[in-house]
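Teaching assistant here, posting this on the class forum so everyone can see the example we discussed in section. The complex has two components, and the goal was to see what a joint structure prediction looks like when all of them are supplied at once.
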Amino acid sequence: MKPLNLIVLLLFLGGAVWALTRSDRSVREIQNAYYQAMAPFLKSGSQLETHARAFVGEVRHSKELETELEATREQLGRLRLFESRFRALEHENVQLRHALDFKKTTHFDVVAAQVIRRNPATWWQTVDIDAGSKRGIASQLTVLSNNGLVGMIDRIDSSGERASVLLLTDEKCQVSARVEGSPEVGILSGQRGGFEGDPMLRLRFLSPEAALRPGQRVFTTGRGGTFQANILLGTIDTVEKGALDSEALVRPSVNFADLGAVFVVLSADS
Amino acid sequence: MIRYSLLTLLLLLTAFVVQQFLPAFTGIHHSRILLVQLVFLCCAVTVGQRTMLLLAFIGGFFWDAQCALGPQGGDLEISAQQVESLRFGYSILLFGAMGFLMQGIQPLFKQGKWQFSALLSGIAVLLYLAAEYAIINFVRGDFVLSRATVFQMVFTALLTMLFSPLIFWLLFRLAKACDHSINPEAGRRRRRAT
């Protein structure tokens, strides 16, 4: 090997070691600089993706849309019935609270956002949304859809108009979870590339004698300080019992392949 | 030569931009075209070792800047069980290793047999993904390899490889524009024949 090549190789290895020893804070600074430089391209890229999605939506067969409309009408009628019942219950609740002099403390503030882009990486599960610090979004906030927990905010774009969401299906997003109708509590997370087809979640550290059955719902416990309590995560699919602990596979309640509108929880009672 | 090296660097940076516009093919096991890796691999076979290492550093560094995830928040109850994640910068070493692999068949490329390099670029992408997946599993401490993951890696490598002739064509054009030959032996043979 030529001496100059050897020097360059040593410099390369030195550079790699320097990069590998960066702290989380330095990595975030590097990432911010990178995404700041890429911002104009990301914006046009996400616009393209949004247009493509809208186009695909438009060309769906009209018959399919007709059926969907019929189903929606039916559902609307049902929901109207529920709403009238809900209003009656709410009214009754207000009256009872008033009667008990119960101070209302519930607070739940959310920001609606659209998923505009998926991260072009093979293993990592993140999406970008069109809301950032300008709308009050900060790192580590909970992201929901109308079906349950989507994930949490990972990175805020320096423009203040976008943020990156770490999905529940990534193994870095860990949630303290409980199984409905049982005393079982564990830690739920995804697994990169670990499942056939649909993404599944792993609920670990359950007791060895966990008596769980498929279909039982899994909710957040609210422990850990990141996610609020009682957010739906999914349903039990299978349970594997071990000598020291049990593990369950959980089917997520959210369809991660078709994420559209999401809600970022700015503040809420846990 | 210097002009050509600078152009390969610009091409790699452009690949990062174009990569943002390439979605995953959900119908083909969520596979995608890894343009950044492909451009790097094709460039690696046409340049010297020093330029290849520079490209590997820049490629790996920016790739990790794009993909790295932040530390998990929350209290210690959850953080105590936190999954170890890949360190920022590991891609630099992977890019370097793949670059050396591509340089192994540089003599064939210099003879004008770019088809072997195109084929090897697909194999290198597959190895890159397999190595990345193996590191993820190693860090996790639990090896799981599903059929879907294998298909995802294979189809990603195949899809990426399909675009390698296009990148080589682009590199030949760039080399011509810089008045630089990336396969000198083939050029000499052609001149001798005429």
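For the discussion questions: Chain A has a mean pLDDT of 82. Residues 179 and 218 of chain A are 5 Å apart (CA to CA). Think about how each of these relates to the inputs above.
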